[in-house]
Design a protein that fits this description.
Elements (H helix, E strand, L loop, with lengths): L10 H9 L7 H11 L4 E4 L6 H11 L10 E4 L3 H13 L7 E4 L5 H8 L5 E4 L1 H9 L10 E5 L1 H6 L3 H10 L5 E6 L4 H10 L4 E4 L3 H6 E7 L5 H12 L4 E4 L3 H13 L4 E4 L5 H12 L5 E4 L14 E4 L6 H8 L9 E7 L4 H11 L4 E2 L14 H4 L8 H5 L1
Parallel strand pairs: 1-6, 1-7, 2-4, 2-5, 3-4, 5-6, 8-13, 8-14, 9-11, 9-12, 10-11, 12-13
Bound molecules: adenosine monophosphate.
The site of adenosine monophosphate (AMP) has 15 residues, from helix 3.
Length: 395
Amino acid sequence: MYTFKDLGIKKEFVDCLKKSGIHTPTPIQDMSIEGIIQQKDVIAEAPTGTGKTLAFLLPMMNSMVSNNNGIQGLIISPTRELAIQISEEAQKINCNKINILTVYGGKEYSKQLKDSKNSVDLIIATPGRLVDFIDQGLIKLNTLKTLVLDEVDQILLMGFQKEVEVILKNSNKKRQTLCYSATLNTQVKKIAYKITKDPLVIKIEDKDKNDKMKKYLVETTDRWKIDALATILNDTNPFMAIIFCRTKARVDRIEAKLEERGYNVQKLHSDIPQIKREKIINSFKKAEIQYLVATDLASRGLDITGVTHIFNLDIPDKADTYIHRIGRTARAGEKGATYLFVDPKDKRVLSEIETLLGKPLEKVEYDRSRDVININDPLKKKYNKKIKTRSDERK
Ligand code: AMP
């Protein structure tokens, strides 16, 4: 295994990484960094939580010069949350003091506008707001050296094709293009090959992560799902968990029901104002919230340490999404458990998921007859397993 220095990373970055407790490259970093420094295009498939962000950020920032008269790097993220997270990671290793601008919809239009008029070296952006700025002539990409499409499958397949076309059309033709994602199906791979030149193709399978993550199946019916969930929550008593639902309305309903039953819960979906979304993610990061009920908005890229459980209360539409959702746990060497709740009608997607995983999920036997107890009810509390609090965890 090479060191960051062997791969061509400058000493000041190596020192900066050490301060964050990062000493040796992960496999995706090992395989990406040298090629990116040599200006190669890359198509990379690597599970989340394997150090994908630094795999492209480090070599990009390593080659950048502060205030170089024009934008040198652009990272496109499908969601605001992921864009913010990439920016935070970039700031942590910003020893060259390059100017980083984060551009995303939802808030701070005038601040982002003002910042875009300063000399910017690296932009981290969601597609819509970026195109808006390009259209207004506020951002020019003719000096761009590196373009990254992070979570490229979501960017391309979830409706941002047109925006990507505008961005590509406005970008320096001599740039390098890097496509990163946890999953790349054939269709997306084809598009990735179209927008890259002679790419370095990288695929990382995280066998280690598979050992650290338990994947369970809960056979139930739509009608009994919430009771099955409550029973399992009380049995497993997660430190922090994300509960995925298919629609915003479902998220609203499930969050209200769990709150009613006394759980420490918050919700996250795209109808919640951006400022509030950031507040919720921050308090979840600080472990002030135990359960986050979310749509697939939370299924990509979010790196929150301490998420011990993922509950797929509603099966996703596609097997790929399941992989992204469960990738929110068992991160950075931690253990994790994931539960998929299925109604008999979910058979088709379940079989796609099991085919993708290469083996069946482990069935959970739980006591369906047991009364699901409101944990706030003092009379019933004694029957219930003690719900751990934050202070219990710290003891
Ligand atoms: P990512 O896959 O980019 O979301 O990264 C997952 C987590 O791993 C982040 O918290 C990173 O800071 C951390 N990380 C990235 N690279 C390394 C490394 N080489 N050694 C240890 N941790 C790392």
